[in-house]
Amino acid sequence: MHQPFAQYQLRDIVGGILRQLELLVRLERHMLGIIASYAVAIGLFMLCVPIAVQELVSTFSFAVEPIMIFTLATIVGLALTGAASFRVLQARAVETLQQRIYTRIAIAFTDTLPRLQEESFLPQHANRFAEADLLTRALVAMVADLFNVAVVGSIGMGLLVFFHPYFLLYNVTLIAGFLVLLTVFGRGGFLITLEMSRLHYELYHWIQNIAANLPHLRAAGYSPYLLSRTDALTQAYVRVRQRRSDLLTGRQYKAATLWQAAGHAGMIATAGMLVSIGQLTVGQFAAAELIAGNLLLNMDTLARRMVHMFFAFVSFREMNAFFSLPQDRSGHKSVIPVDDFGLAGIRVSAKNVSFGYPDAPLLFEEVNVEVAPGEKVMMLCRTNTQKTALAKVLAGLMAPTAGAVLYNDVNLVEVDLRSVDSRRSLMLDSQPTLLEGTIEDNITLGRPSIRYEDVQWALQFVELDDEIDALPDGLSTPVTGHGGQFTLSQTLRLLLARAIVIRPYVLIVDGTFHSMVPSVREVILRRLCSKDEPWSIIFVSNDPTFAHAERRVVVG
């Protein structure tokens, strides 16, 4: 059983889960305290039921007095109504907890994604956000039950011991048996659920892969490979899921039902023996059996919730894997005030810069260049991969494998990127995608320092002002589907408008806009490279015919 899951380092996984759980408890301790307090109230109200049953049976043993029956029935009714009221409040509190957790996860993902190191990030890592919904579903199924079982069970067990000390042994035996059910009979359930999650995401990624290749697949016609691979992945998932069902339902839950029967029989035997020797009244016998039945029912519920507990733990693990990805350690670097760059521009220096992705050969090495403030330079690369990587390294988005990139003699790996974000822009010709929102949102990105006049200037610069004015909603026009309603030329110009709207000191461009309409491209390139514009521009391209820059640097 252990061999198929030997790839999982259980100690590291459990450590990560505990860290996420500790963070959740710390952030939501107030809501968890409210849910726990409701559980205490429910337990106290439910305590009235066995006490009333005890008194009612004792009354029947001597004489039937209607007023006593009516009084006890009224008390029980009021107690159950009170318990029901707190159950409703508890359910609403759990729903609020769900909403808060979901919101926290969404904000954490949004905050973390832009800071992940690109070398270690894959698009499928973002799929882990699906765990936000799965986690909250699992929590709503188990949080209230866990509190209720713990609190109501403790109150019930305390009442049993109050009836007779012998019930302490019964309580210990009951708890020990239940722990055996969880640990021994449920052993392996978590790892199986973890493997199930891995196979689910593998299939999920495969479906996304199909969606990303739709034009090619439609052109190819009938493709048996798609169904055969999907069938293989689905069969692997179903086999593991069946294995989990055999464990949790066929073994653990079966043992739980047998233990429940043994618990009932043990209570009847223990309480009956105490009644026979005069250590327990008939009323206490009835109350004890009622309490034991409720305890066993709660434990049965908890046993059935084990699958949700495993789902919650797996969700914690998947999200921990996402949040453990390497990030730009900006919080541990110094922040240079923007004013320290002065008004004379930024001098960009690359000294013996080399870069390669992990476990891959270097894309470029020993790159040396110095770009003075206001200078327009073109760096000629061999491949698209090389030029995009070099542009990101020069912008500080990726750290060089060797060497250093300096802005005004400040090494970018030593400072928080927020120090240069308002003075440096990067435009990626190779990734022409837009965000969902409006045209204005895509240009400003919500940056408060950008004024309406800045947006208008940027749109005029990239020859988009008339086209956007012609739209019914103008700047408020919705952008959907990564900007699919715009031509590639328009998308590139919107991205360029975003890059120049802050009037950067340094503009780094990956590519030379060959996907733009040629006449518009020439106008924009002349404007970008005009001596009237004070910014420095570094075009990183593999186009040897590009002639707009003042000088060219060949990257080996």
TrEMBL record:
Q: Please give an example of a GO cellular component term from this record.
A: plasma membrane
Compartment annotation = Cell membrane
Annotated keywords: Hydrolase, Membrane, Transmembrane, Transmembrane helix
Q: Which residues cross the membrane?
A: 31-52, 67-89, 138-163, 169-194
**Superkingdom:** Bacteria
Which InterPro entries does the UniProt entry name for this protein? ABC1_TM_dom, ABC1_TM_sf, ABC_transporter-like_ATP-bd, P-loop_NTPase, Type_1_exporter
ABC transmembrane type-1 domain sequence ranges? 39-304
Q: Which residues form the signal peptide?
A: none
Q: Which Pfam families match?
A: ABC_tran
Q: What is its EC number?
A: 3.6.3.-
A single GO molecular function, which one? ABC-type oligopeptide transporter activity
Q: Which Gene3D superfamilies match?
A: ABC transporter type 1, transmembrane domain (1.20.1560.10), P-loop containing nucleotide triphosphate hydrolases (3.40.50.300)
Membrane topology recorded in Swiss-Prot or TrEMBL: Multi-pass membrane protein
**What PANTHER family is this protein classified in?**
ATP-DEPENDENT PERMEASE MDL1, MITOCHONDRIAL (PTHR43394), TOXIN SECRETION ABC TRANSPORTER ATP-BINDING PROTEIN (PTHR43394:SF4)
Would you tell me the protein name for this molecule? Putative ABC-type transport system, ATPase and permease component
Organism taxonomic ancestry:
Bacteria, Pseudomonadati, Nitrospirota, Nitrospiria, Nitrospirales
